[in-house]
Amino acid sequence: MSARFNPAAFRAFAAAIGQEWVMTGDDDRLAFADHFAADENKHLPSGALSPASAEEVREIVRIANRYKVPLWPISRGKNFGYGGAAPVLKGAVVLDLSRMKQIEVDRENGTVLVEPGVGFFDLYDYLQANKIPLWLSVPGNSWGSVAGNALDRGVGYTSYGDHASRICGLEVVLPDGDLVRTGMGAMQGSPTWNLYRNGFGPGWDAMFCQSNFGIVTKLGLWLMPEPEAVAGYDYEFDKPDDLGWAIDTIMPLRREGLIQQSPSIGNWLRSAAVMTTREQWTSDKGPLDEKVVTAIRERFKIGWWSVQIRFYGHLDVVEASMRVLDRAFDKQPILSKKPALWKRGDPPEGSPVTGVPVTFPLANANWHGGRGGHLGYSPVLPPRGDLAMDQFKRTYALYQKYGMDYHASFSMSERSLVNVNQLLYDKDDPGMMGRVDAMFRALVADAKSLNYGEYRTHIDYMDLVAGTYDFNDRALLRLNQRVKDALDPNGVVAPGKSGIWPKVMRS
Ligand code: ADP
């Protein structure tokens, strides 16, 4: 299935927002492709539009309905590993909101209202330039937008790292062009839009996350007041088997709220793939042998697994938390621990754990050389060490079977583990690219055999993953589709997002 280029619709778009913001050339279309895909053509849009305001978005949506043109809204379109800027449906028109860059900060209450084009770097610079003592939570690779990342349920490393849970109030253009504000924003002139989440009646913020029910034009987000101190440890663990007890040591502290960020315990390739390329370690194309793994670990002074744990807040409280953490790890066979301490007034640490945006993790796409890329695979597990060990062993075996280098982490939230894996590849290696799809499908099937679902997925696999949520003959998908049909009968907003297709496109 694909959508065809519609010249009349594009003329109407140009009349609405100006010809210069309507992009239909081959180069333009390629700019919005999925650059990590083996076949960039598969999800190529038929063009892109870049409106400057919510009013222009509304006009575009009305035109899209008139001509039945499917749109694919993006904020900055840097969702690499999940499809980048590209639409699920080939030929859909990318609605690039990156020109909309308004920032409104409520300094006293620690909130920001951002438009979709505001990047993490934009907001960081704005806070610094205006000397506003509020901190961001940024994803490891922070070149995307604050709004797009939160809407797709991206994560960061501070105690505000569950970005979707910090959303408070949205402005949304609905598929028919209506404009709605959620929560307290539903009241004209409300001073509590970005302060009180629930509003009155059903809550809609979550309905616009990973969904295709509307186009978000403003997003309220809570920011962390700059803490007096950040302290913690970087722990290293020697053996693969240490994963189990490490999780069982950290999880109770996470559950009871002593640890408020989501520690992410990851393997040695996380560092090596960012700092070096594979050919610096071996010319052997097969699985990395123990000698290579040992050499990598020695060079970076890391364990088989590493985890950073951090506390944020008043120095007294942070120091007390450190003592509790010390006691918890007291008798455990850690390989090493390195203390970290930042105090207000110190220069910024320059790392995501202190809310500073960075892009260097993107370098991992270069691990194999060639035109690199990666694909994310992220099932959610109950937070138990033994289950994590089983998950690790089964997944590791699949990496071995398909001849890929194991790259994984387990992120610990209050009541779950998210096992984020990356398949790093070289798009110029046809043999390797021939294995990626089969391996991904095997991973999803493996997770499904234990009824673990993925929290997020690449545009190629949205139907596959949505299909694994199969209670009562996929009742949730059917509910999503009923809402979709009610709001968007012409299917103009992001058809296929999260496996949700409008009636006109369901076979
Ligand atoms: P980033 O800006 O971090 O690069 P993207 O723009 O790639 O993030 O957004 C990630 C995904 O979230 C997109 O593929 C799209 O499905 C959805 N999305 C992003 N921005 C919006 C928005 N303003 N309204 C609705 N959905 C959005």
Q: How would you characterize this protein structure?
A:
There is one protein chain. The termini are close together. Strands 12, 13, 14, 15, 16, 17, 18 and 19 form an 8-stranded antiparallel beta sheet that branches. A 5-stranded antiparallel beta sheet has the order 5-6-10-8-9. Strands 1-2-4-3 form a 4-stranded mixed beta sheet. It has 13 helices and 19 strands. β8 (167-173) and β9 (179-181) form a beta hairpin. The longest helix has 20 residues, at 430-449. It has 3 domains: 7-98, Uridine Diphospho-n-acetylenolpyruvylglucosamine Reductase, domain 2 (2-Layer Sandwich), CATH 3.30.43; 103-225, Uridine Diphospho-n-acetylenolpyruvylglucosamine Reductase, domain 3 (2-Layer Sandwich); 229-460, Vanillyl-alcohol Oxidase, Chain A, domain 3 (3-Layer(aba) Sandwich), CATH 3.40.462. With 507 residues, the chain is an alpha+beta fold. The site of adenosine-5'-diphosphate (ADP) has 20 residues, from β3, α5 and β10.
